[in-house]
Specification:
- The structure is a homodimer.
- Chain A is mainly alpha-helical.
- Helix content of chain A is about 50%, strand content about 10%.
- Chain A contains six helices and two strands.
- A two-stranded antiparallel sheet of chain A has the order 1-2.
- In chain A, strand 1 and strand 2 form a beta hairpin.
- Chain A is globular.
- About 10% of the residues of chain A have low confidence.
- The structure holds a DNA duplex.
DNA sequence: CAGCATCCGCCGTGATACTG
DNA sequence: CAGTATCACGGCGGATGCTG
């Protein structure tokens, strides 16, 4: 039951909500492009999940797959512009995490300007 | 098994990943503050889920609950600064959704170039 | 109106093993 | 290396019904 398909926030959330999705996009953005690379970067992910996420992202047009029919099979995944457009969101989350979830957590009076000045 | 608790992105994602969480925060930001109001705005949400999300958000310090011990019970939920700090992320997702997912709220402005890159 | 209790089903995810 | 197949578990979220 998709909350509300006419809502851009929901749709983006749907794409991004997977446990590994954002991390995957981030790794891709940082240059990891091989399956085994990603597997190592995303510590703990199972090949199945990685494969699933990759495929989903591919179908969304967020990542592009390049296959090299070489002797040692090689496949590279790269972010499309649509995928790169996700980065600001990730950055926003990183910033939020740093400013509000880092040192002084929850239930605090919470200053208006945490780290920013 | 929490991906990586030392990663700000993951921590934010953990908070934000609930199906209704972001919408809830957004409704709160838009002025909905009563339980039944939220229930109506978030079409389809069950009271259970709403209650659960609200409580979780409260424990995170993202929303604050104000109880009015009146004859008709009244409770108001408001965003804390920590909750309001989530808004840019939501905006980012809305923008992304509009530009890349073809979900358009005709009433909203589109500050960037859609197919720029 | 506000909110909790219970039951249940779905989906994402994890673990492991196997294939091209 | 780059996946896929299978099995199973857990948590989130949905539906209903009840209480203060």
């Amino acid at each position: 039951m998709p909350v509300d398909e006419s809502c851009p926030v929901c749709r983006t959330a749907d794409i991004v909500c997977g446990k590994w999705t954002l991390l995957l996009v981030r790794e891709l953005a940082e240059g990891c492009s091989r399956f085994c690379e990603l597997e190592r970067s995303l510590t703990g992910i199972s090949p199945r999940t990685l494969s699933l996420r990759l495929r989903a992202l591919e179908e969304e047009g967020i990542v592009e797959r390049a296959t090299f029919p070489e002797v040692p099979p090689r496949v590279e995944y790269v972010l499309t512009p649509k995928g790169e457009a996700l980065l600001p969101i990730i950055e926003g989350m990183r910033t939020y995490g740093q400013e509000w979830l880092g040192a002084s957590c929850a239930s605090e009076p919470a200053p208006r300007e945490p780290v920013a000045a």
